[in-house]
Amino acid sequence: MKYPHDAAPRRVLSRIGVLAALLIAFAFAAATPVAAAEEREAPADDGSVDLIERYGNAAQELMNQGMEYLGIRYRFGGNSPATGLDCSGLVQNVFRNALGLDLPRTAREMARLGDKVGLQDLKPGDLVFFNTMRRTFSHVGIYMGEGRFLHAPASGGRVRLDEIGERYWSQRFNGARRLLPDADAMLPR
């Protein structure tokens, strides 16, 4: 196929220009999150800093995503913010949207994942479990740091933060699980 006088070089230059523009756009998009992260204030030192530095902000992403659910109404069996969430539906949504992880549907199934963690060793992003229905692991929340956890409490309630040390919760605490890698396991030996 023959091209009119300058058509072939123009097409080639046009394609090179498009490719150059795409490469510049990709480079800018890749650099932008780093610049934005540098501009943010450093988070409070509640144990989350170590996790954030080591896991590409996974713990911070969980906390940020979780806070977006505050005030959503409780609905037994609910798994959609639009119609309401129960405790495990909340945890599923937060982990899926923050980290792309699909967790099992029930608190009991979630309690089988990850590594066991003691109350004194909790870090932001850990799952915390409670006996609220006269059976172990009947309620789940996400530890947010500073003694607080995010959860969808019960009928008539809304997603909220509560103190894990409150009498009601401390008496019903069943344990915790860490799904994010442990910092010590990631250190070079």
Task: State the main characteristics.
two-stranded antiparallel sheet, single chain, alpha+beta, six-stranded antiparallel sheet, 7 helices, 189 residues, 2 domains, disordered C terminus, endopeptidase fold (from Nostoc punctiforme), globular, 17% strand
Give the number of helices. Answer: 7
Enter the CATH topology name of the largest domain. Answer: endopeptidase fold (from Nostoc punctiforme)
Radius of gyration: 23 Å
How many β-strand runs?
A: 8
What do we call the CATH homologous superfamily of the largest domain? endopeptidase domain like (from Nostoc punctiforme)
Q: Which class best fits the helix and strand makeup? A: alpha+beta
Oligomer: single chain
Mean pLDDT: 78
Element pattern in H and E? HHHEEHHEEEEEHEH
Strand neighbour order, sheet with most strands: 3-8-4-5-6-7
- Under the CATH scheme, which class of the largest domain? Alpha Beta
Tell me, what's the shape?
globular
Strand content: 15-25%
Main β sheet profile: 6 strands, antiparallel
**Into which percent range does the helicity of residues fall?**
40-55%
Beginning-to-end CA distance, first to last residue: 64 Å
Which residues form runs of ≥5 with pLDDT under 50?
1-52, 183-189
CATH architectural type of the largest domain:
Alpha-Beta Complex
The domain tally reads 2
Pfam family, one: NLPC_P60
Organism: Aromatoleum anaerobium
Family: Belongs to the peptidase C40 family.
Protein name: Glycoside hydrolase
